[in-house]
Amino acid sequence: MQIEVRNLSKKFGRVSAVDHVNFEIEQGKLIGLLGPSGGGKTTILRMLAGLEKPDAGEILFQGNKVNHLPPQERGIGFVFQNYALFKHMSVFDNIAFGLTVQRKSKSEIRDRVHEMIELIGLQGLENRAPHQLSGGQRQRVAFARALAPSPQLLLLDEPFAAIDAKVRKELRTWLREMISRVGITSIFVTHDQEEAVEVADEIMIINQGRLEQKGTPWQVYKEPLTPFVAGFLGESNLLHNPAHIVGFESAPRPHSEKARVLIRPEAIEVGREHEISNLSAAALGIVRSVQFRGSVWQVEVEVGEHRLLAHRTLEKETLLPGEQVAVLIHSLHLFHDEQSLFLE
Ligand code: ATP
């Protein structure tokens, strides 16, 4: 299902939970709503579901306005963190629930539930009660229950929040595969950026009720539109007072108070002088700390008044705290008023 949201707004008392949000989602896409706690992600999801009434704005499914439709008439499946399985029902009956509500025939229900059980790979567990399943298995059943009535849109609110880290990773990949196999438009809420980046076709960064940016994870990482997005997604050096950045002296100098410069750690080359690719453009710095980060060394280096995080490949010798090094900045983003500029 294709989704469009226009000027969607919702206040709770004086809190603007969702503030003039606009977006479009293409059929079949998996979208991650990402942002800090209290940003408005759940409220957006609940309005799409029909569980919360917008103060203003329009929600369109396939071009048709659905604002007035109750949840059960919107063709939506839910997997909510707190939308637990029915405890006293078997796996089979849980998955059959929506079909029973739709008054499908017994044989239709049986066929569909079996299809779903096969899809989630839990054959043989049909008669188990939820407490006889692992957390991961329970979430698979919740997923099957949501999909059984063939919804056009799947909404997932922190679906893996209650699950431990390792299983959570497996479930993510699993969910990604299931959703592309079924081909259903899906939106999930998370505040885990790794989860959003790994799973979603596109992410939407929500902050203080506003949609800051929408795009593929790579686009949003590579070309953040605001300092907030830059700081929220991935590691970054955000400088307030970029008075003098070696190699970029001719870059436009931002004047406004709100101006920021973003330099990603991987855009900073740091090393002993003989290692640096273009020494004449480099600045001098002092290493303050070095940390092993699994795939790189993370070096904290002091350059003038700035402290910068830089990445250094593991093949290179480790640097030592206190050591003088050369620092070369390969690219940066300039946020100036409402504009963002990428410089190399
Ligand atoms: P989290 O990641 O913590 O779930 P979120 O991004 O989903 O946060 P929302 O739950 O949508 O954010 O909340 C947005 C704002 O609206 C918050 O300030 C929250 O306190 C407020 N809010 C949400 N629901 C209600 C409600 N029913 N009554 C009053 N205020 C609410």
UniProtKB/TrEMBL annotation:
Record InterPro entries: AAA+_ATPase, ABC_SmlMolc_Importer, ABC_transporter-like_ATP-bd, ABC_transporter-like_CS, Mo/tungstate-bd_C_term_dom, P-loop_NTPase, Sulph_transpt1, Transp-assoc_OB_typ2
Organism of derivation: Tumebacillus flagellatus
Reactions catalysed: a quaternary ammonium(out) + ATP + H2O = a quaternary ammonium(in) + ADP + phosphate + H(+)
Protein name: Carnitine transport ATP-binding protein OpuCA
GO molecular function, one term: ABC-type quaternary ammonium compound transporting activity
Cited Gene3D superfamilies: P-loop containing nucleotide triphosphate hydrolases
ABC transporter domain boundaries: 3-233
Keywords of this entry: ATP-binding, Nucleotide-binding, Sulfate transport, Translocase, Transport
Domain of life of the organism encoding this protein: Bacteria
Uppermost EC category: translocase
The keyword rRNA-binding belongs to this UniProt entry's keyword annotation: no
Example of a GO cellular component annotation carried by this entry: ATP-binding cassette (ABC) transporter complex
Enzyme Commission numbers on file: 7.6.2.9
Quaternary assembly: The complex is composed of two ATP-binding proteins (OpuCA), two transmembrane proteins (OpuCB and OpuCD) and a solute-binding protein (OpuCC).
